[in-house]
Amino acid sequence: MTFQEFLIKWYGKRVQDFTLEKVDGLHLLPEKINENQLPNLDKCQKCPARIFRQDIPFWLGSHTNKKLMVIAQDAGKGEEDYGLNTVFSIHNAHTNIQAYFEASHKHKGYYDLFRNLIGNENFLAYIYFTDIVKCAYSTFGKVAFSETLCKDELFFEIQEVNPEAILLMGKPAQNAFKSLSLQSGNTFEEIFTDACSINSRGSVSFTHYKVAGKNVFFIPHLIGNLHIAKENKETFEVFKSSLITYIHSTIS
Q: If pLDDT is split at 50, 70 and 90, which confidence band does 43 have?
């Protein structure tokens, strides 16, 4: 299976309209994504998790040998909200950054996070974004992770992209990745860990692992609804800044 065939399997034949095969790998043509594109009606009928499909993953230039691969849990509700549902809806950060910022109050936070992790305004050229499950299977809580089908090809995707490092955002994505990794016989070597209290009842944690020779970072979903107490906000901002600095220095 080629990488384009992999994308067509999960996102439909229209992938051919906005991708281009070159010697150095498959290139995404984001300017063509919205040209005469009808919603993807192929809902993966064999899978019970066919709710809100992610239209496409997102990257710029060749899909291979990225500095960082960012993996979230699932596509999340977005297709019905923003018209085109990509990972973190970040497609719009390239095609129309103002529209991207206006679509959600969280988007400026995502933009700043990834820009600082890479240390470059053109961070999209260095990151490959994807989700473990390509639709919003968790939206209504009716489908178990074990029932989803596209999760089984996550490691094909990782092998094909061959990133220098992998970043898992949020506990659900981290737990799923760890479970799939252990099933594949991978071991986790803990390099560094840190944690921060966010209120009187809970905390968030960060861990840097080595998995199959790659740097793998488990980070909190920093742009999500963390319910940070007023008295913890300053400490949390220091924690957030320190882990961004740590990741950036590790992959630079």
A: low
pLDDT value of residue 141: 74
User: Phi and psi of 237, rounded to 5°?
Assistant: -65, -35
Our count of domains for the chain comes to 1
| Domain membership of residue 213 as a residue range | 3-251
pLDDT digits (tens, 9 = 90+) for 167-196: 999 999 999 999 999 999 999 999 999 999
Angle at 165 between CA 197 and CA 101, to 5 degrees: 65
- Specify whether the CB–CB gap between 103 and 82 falls below 8 A: yes
Neighbour tally for 82: CB within 10 Å: 17
Q: Is the pTM of this model over 0.70?
A: yes
Cβ-proximal residues to 141 (8 Å cutoff; 6+ apart), any chain: none
* Number of DSSP helices (H) and strands (E) in the chain, helices first: 8, 9
Mean pLDDT of 13-42: 79
99 within 8 A of 92, measured Cβ to Cβ: yes
- Helices of type H across 104-200: 107-118, 154-161, 171-183
Nearest to 128 by CA among 114, 149, 107: 114
Structure tokens at 246: 């740590």
| 128 contacts 62 by C-beta, under 8 angstroms | no
CA angle 109, 111, 114 (to 5 degrees): 105
The CATH number covering residue 175 comes to 3.40.470
Question: Would you call 61 helix, strand, or coil by DSSP?
Answer: strand
